[in-house]
Amino acid sequence: MSDWRKSARDYVAKQQESQKRQQEDRWRRKQQEYKKEYTKELVGFRRKYDCCVCGEPAEPDVVTKPIAADGDYAPSGEVEVAIWTSPHDRRQCTVCGKWACEKHIEAGICKKCALDLPTGGAANFHLSIRYVLLFWALAFLLIFFLLLV
């Protein structure tokens, strides 16, 4: 009589073991999918927010969130979630709109744009000559077209 009980217990144990293995496989596949997706997102994030001066790649903010036990996939515990909206160690240049790390941006202007800014004196004179020439060229074109009409 104990034979059928033993076979019943063995059958139930095998089923439970099979279900546990399936859950672990699903969890492992889910983790692999997440890693692939994370890697793809990370490459795009680094390309979008790399420093325009030194080219140093940006890292996203990572937040740890608790998760409850889920019968399908995850055991209870914590999971790290990346925030892809903007980098925590980069600021956007107000002149060119590109992103720069903290050591290459000052007063909202990156190092590249700061080196290209006119500093007064000859630089401003050069700009004023350019605008005067542009004004006279436009005035000449306007007079020329008015004479044609």
Blueprint of the fold:
Elements: H1 2-49, E1 61-67, E2 77-83, E3 90-92, E4 99-101, E5 105-106, E6 109-110, H2 111-116, H3 122-148
Antiparallel strand pairs: 1-2, 3-4, 5-6
**Number of domains as seen in the coordinates:** 2
Distance between the termini: 115 Å
Largest beta-sheet details: 2 strands, antiparallel
Flag low-confidence runs: none
Mean pLDDT across the residues is: 81
- Tell how many strands the DSSP assignment holds: 6
Biggest sheet strand line-up: 1-2
Number of helices: 3
Helix coverage percent: 40-55%
- Helix vs. strand class: alpha+beta
Shape: elongated
C-alpha Rg (nearest Å): 32 Å
Description:
By secondary structure, the chain is of the alpha+beta class. The protein has 2 domains: 109 residues, no CATH class; 32 residues. 54% of the residues lie in helices and 16% in strands. The strands form 3 sheets. It has a two-stranded antiparallel ribbon with strand order 1-2. The chain has a two-stranded antiparallel ribbon with strand order 3-4. Strand 3 and strand 4 form a beta hairpin. The N and C termini lie far apart (115 Å).
What keyword list fits this structure?
single chain; 149 residues; alpha+beta; 2 domains; two-stranded antiparallel ribbon; two-stranded antiparallel sheet; 3 helices; 6 strands; 54% helix; elongated
Describe the structure concisely.
This protein is of the alpha+beta class.
